[in-house]
Amino acid sequence: MGYDIERFVGYVNEGLLCSICRDVLEDPLQAPCEHAFCTACIHGWLVHHSNCPEDRQVIDVSLLRPLYRYMKNDLNRLQLHCRNREYGCEMVCSLESIDRHERECEYSQIPCSNAGCTVQIERRNLDGHLAVCEYRSRECPNGCGYTILSAEDTQHNCVAELRTELELLRSEMICRVEEAKHEMESRLDSQRRHMVQKESVLQNEIEELKSQMSRMMSDVRSLMAAERQHRQELEQAELEKREL
């Protein structure tokens, strides 16, 4: 939907009106046939139709384009009243800056910031309302540190509140201790498994070293036996040589 034409000061060019809602264009788009529409209006129209509402030419969402720059500039320069005019705001500004003004307008109706309060109040009166709001919160005057709502004044019991707080803290502490315990057990179990795996690997390496040493000793004994055999053969050859 567009901006209500009654809010504008002076003449508004027909080309700046939405072809669907007939109000001043809001977030405008333009069809190839040069008819302009509010984005919300044309998207809603194309859900059930496939043509321009003005001249019935076939259009599609993909064919829509932003408004021509000169038309956009003309649109932004239009002067209009704040939407809070009925509440007393007398501001008149350009369409380009109206949103920024209305976000900060002292006459805007805004909700009370206190949880549970459904009152809508003018921004300029918010501080006064918060001072008397029945849902406002404050710290207990007896010094227990509990934040209470005015509506709960008669029901507040410092001892009961502190006891409840203590129970909550005790429960939280027990939960944290249990979590820390489980985490430590998990870490110890992980380290234990790692040590067992490491021990198994070391044991396998020791067995392999023993096997290698056994093979080496066997090779040494074989070499020594061969050396004795060779020495005996040399001695026998020396005796034969002397006999000759």
UniProtKB/TrEMBL annotation:
Residues 101-144 form the TRAF-type domain. One of its GO terms (molecular function) is ligase activity. GO terms for biological process: regulation of canonical NF-kappaB signal transduction. Keywords: Coiled coil, Ligase, Metal-binding, Zinc, Zinc-finger. Pfam families: zf-C3HC4_2, zf-TRAF. Residues 18-56 form the RING-type domain. Residues 192-243 form a coiled coil. This is RNF41 ligase. It comes from Platysteira castanea.
